[in-house]
Beta-ketoacyl-[acyl-carrier-protein] synthase III (Saccharothrix saharensis), 320 residues
Amino acid sequence: MSVILGVGASVPRRVVTNDELATRLDTSDEWIRSRTGIGARRWVELGTSTSDLAADAGARALRSAGRSAVDAVIVATTTPDRTCPAIAPAVAARLGLVGVPAHDVAAVCTGFLYGLANAVGLIASGAARTVLLVAAEAFSTILDPDDRGTAVIFGDGAGAVVVGEGEDGIGPCVLGSDGTGADLIQVPAGERYFRMSGKEVFRAAVERMADVSLDALARAGLDLADVDHLAPHQANRRICDAVARRLGLAGSKVLADLEAVGNTAAASIPVLLADAAAHGRLKAGDRVLTAAFGGGLTWGATTLVWPDVTADFGVLGEDR
């Protein structure tokens, strides 16, 4: 079995409020909050890349774990600095990990859980004893500024965990996909901007996240009564609440941070976990159920026993 040894997160300095978006879009703070639960989001400034956020979050996770080296690096992202090559080797190099195997994972908002399954698999196979998993997005760089359906939802950020050998930590990672729905969440070939079919995605996300959550619990030998916290992908508040209702979990058990950072896609779960741990909402020994749904279509879930670690959450360039 594998455990989390350290956790870190990094968000851009720039805060974009709903009121700022309302100056150029047909929307309002009230409209955005009522439909998404988002009050603001963080967007990168010109010249800041996904790898900048990834390297900062990775450094924070390593510091949280008290380590300067790992055996492998995985980066989950939808917004790599370049189409080719992957950014994981560059992130590893920036962290002083030249020579360490490094690869990207592309599963959109399910990227962190796909990457976590990769990390656990590397450790189980004996190929690595410790893995740095980073999920990072500069989603604002692929948003159509005139598309109210997406521009108000997504934010930028990065979260990272160091995964290592241990007992009673990360439960079975349950993953799935359905390529027949690939057109629902996409950046079409030859185009710049991200597109999403909101109504169809809402229905599919609630159904898939709830079902895969139950599967993950069953495979871990747990019941819903054993869950202290649900840490869902921060798609929007209505989706998170609908998943909790479908599972029969009290709203008080649902962790959320999207009011301040929006939907950070692949990064949303580790950013959420780092934020909750840093602010005392998540404590050592708590049992966490986490699930995500993203483009592909992809989905996944797992259970965590939260470790006794100090989360390192900060703003890029300000406090590390």
Remarks:
- The radius of gyration is 18 Å.
